[in-house]
Amino acid sequence: MDGYWSQGGANVGYFTSSAETYDPASGTWTATGALGAARGIHTATLLPDGKVLAVGGNHNSLDAPTIVALFSAELYDPAAGTWTAASRSLNAARSTHTATLLPSGQVLVAAGFYVDNYVWLSSAELYDSTAGPITLVHPKKLPGGAFQFAFTGVPNGTNTMLATTDLGLQLSNWTKLGVVPEFAPGLFLFSDPQATNHSQRIYRVRSP
């Protein structure tokens, strides 16, 4: 479904984390997954893979009413309707900045305001939206029928394992098995104790 979406903002003095998608065909808004951090005066950039990158912004809450700038960035997956932390944060916390998608797939984040010290920023940085290579290593069957394998990826990255027995199934209907723990920097280890219950099982790593 083609459409637009809205996320973050402020309500009665506090920034919010809620998000909604807009369907221009029906003219309706639908609630979707909330961001991990309430934020406002941030940027949101549509990436080539269809995900949306929310960067920086200002944050406060009922418990911490003082406004602070955010370093964090989050990615919205329209297939799952969820937000996850981006593989890396900003080098400089900022709001009211610009974010421009470049032909290379990188996002140029420039200038902005650092509300903590009331400083206007002249710095710029690049976010690489191109997923790093994922390489499978050491697949093996464990005693009892569990299947285990490791794969390499971006250090400190977030990788979610999906599985299905039918390759014709839409990705949104694959079974989410959870986030894969990082065994060593850039090396992720996954074990599926339910593998023995299926004659065939196909896995997919989603990053983030």
Question: Could you give a quick summary of the protein structure above?
Answer:
Helices cover 0% and strands 45% of the residues.
Describe the protein in words.
The chain is an all-beta fold and 208 residues long. Helix content is 0%, strand content 45%. It folds into two domains: 4-128, Kelch-type beta propeller (Neuraminidase), CATH 2.120.10.80; 135-206. The protein is built from no helices and 23 strands. The mean pLDDT is 87.
Would you spell out the secondary-structure blueprint of this structure?
Elements: E1 4-7, E2 10-11, E3 14-15, E4 19-23, E5 28-32, E6 43-46, E7 52-55, E8 58-59, E9 68-69, E10 73-77, E11 82-85, E12 98-101, E13 106-110, E14 113-114, E15 119-120, E16 124-128, E17 135-141, E18 147-152, E19 160-164, E20 175-179, E21 182-184, E22 187-192, E23 202-206
Antiparallel strand pairs: 1-4, 2-3, 4-5, 6-7, 7-10, 8-9, 10-11, 12-13, 13-16, 14-15, 17-18, 18-22, 19-20, 19-23, 21-22
